[in-house]
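Follow-up to my earlier ticket, as requested here are the two runs.
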Amino acid sequence: MEQKEWFASWFDTSYYHQLYNNRNEDEAKLFISNLLDFLKLDKNAKLLDLACGKGRHAKTLNEFGYDVLGVDLSPNSISIASELKNEHLNFQVHDMREPIHGKTFDAVFNLFTSFGYFDETTDNERVCNAIAKMLNPHGILVIDFMNAKKVIANLVSKEEKTVDYLTFHITRQCDGKHIFKRIQFEDQGEKYDFTERVQALKLNDFQTLLAAEFQILHTFGTFDLKPFDPSISDRLIIIAQRK
């Protein structure tokens, strides 16, 4: 039996949602509000939240009046997100490396470091090609990624985090190409061990990845859209347009 990729296994557990249950809804809403104020999308625009998780960004986009589809590889996440469904907000299980057949969008949002999970860099190219195929001409792509340079410089090698009844033992390291986050814990006598692995992509990597199909219009370094500075910014936010 073929072994699942790490993100397919870890993201589909209830423990993943438990560990990250403190994600800030107000921060997400403010970020989306700032993006939409900046982008000035047509009110009839159709939007895709790519790797949507439990749907918090898709929900917020929809609350601003847009028709939104959220997709994620995790059936568990999509099951939770689907509780938010309405006439103009839908969710489905989907692998971001493939285009969604029969669907096109005016803007695609890939938020909260939902990129670079793969073993092969060719999979990054597949994602970008799939996005380009789903975007209407001159459609907009928004990528919100960690600022890898700052993350590596400030890497916390060990920590413990107790959420509800579980204590998660977390270790981090970087091999120059990937940032690894190992998460170990025990529940009801059973031991669990997961490792998140995200490519340490920097702005020049995205510039190379996007060059064939996209033009980068703007880069920002914070959720309130301050300029990107690789030394101090918390985020790398890229606004690109399909050529």
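Run two:
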Amino acid sequence: MKVILSRKGFDLQYGGMPSPILPDGTMLSLPIPSKDDNIKYSDLNWDGKSYYDLIHELKANSRIKEYYTCHLDPDIRKNITPRLGDWIPSFGQTGSALGHLMKQNIGIGDLFLFFGTFRHTELINGRLRYISNAVPVHVIYGYLQVGNIITSDKDIPEWLSSHPHVKNKYWEKSNAIYISSKTLSLCTELPGANCLKYKEDLVLTKKGCSKSIWFLPDFFRKIHITYNSKAWTADCFVSASKGQEFVLDANDEVLEWIKKLIK
């Protein structure tokens, strides 16, 4: 099995703030702004509040406007917006990032681990706030095991028609939509894609360090991770600052590590 560490969601460059770790442990990955898409932040909802309202509770001067649209991808959290038919979690990729996945022969059965920039929050007088001494960290917030891959606009099922990567502009160049498997092969009692609740094991960032400095188990030292061939120092892993998809071949130790994270 190949594993893809896939960087997604808000950060200081795209969105201008971390995604929130809510007080109950929900990690709500905020999709990046996109003028070419149709879904607005005000169309997405969690626990009775729109994403737009949540963003402005956390950052009153956010540049995100109420009419702004976003790129809801990966789309792995079901209940944030109305769905068509038998919705299945999915993730689209295009351009050079897709070229990298294709070069690495990513296919059915391979596993995306989605990570992003997050920060802990708290409720004060009913309003969400970042915890003052909490720092942004990289956290694994969800996963998707590939059950099918759509590579042609002739093969789009109705339930997928609202996904951003079904747009004509993507099919004018290389484009693919990865559809989740029904169950996770590593733990068949779990769905093939899901969002994860926060726990410390899911934090990639080494404690007390900037978010791109990771603390990975030592067995990762002998595993090649694309875009990160010179990432290891004596006591940490300095992840590449650019790049969306970091691919590795998973051995038994990696698979046990993933099972522990996801279960």
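The only thing I checked on run two: The chain is about 10% helix and 30% strand. Let me know what else you need.
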